[in-house]
Amino acid sequence: MDDDRIEKVLEDMRWFYGASDWYAERGVP
User: Fold this and answer.
1) How far is it, in rounded angstroms, from Cα 16 to Cα 8?
2) What is the tens place of the pLDDT at every residue in 1-29?
3) Domain parsing of the chain, residue ranges
């Protein structure tokens, strides 16, 4: 497995969920 690629995916997931929280706080669907 490519640890660097996995780490990048984890970072993307972290950003995705962070963005979801950002929208949720503002009531954006």
Assistant:
1) 12
2) 678 898 998 888 888 888 888 888 888 66
3) 1-29
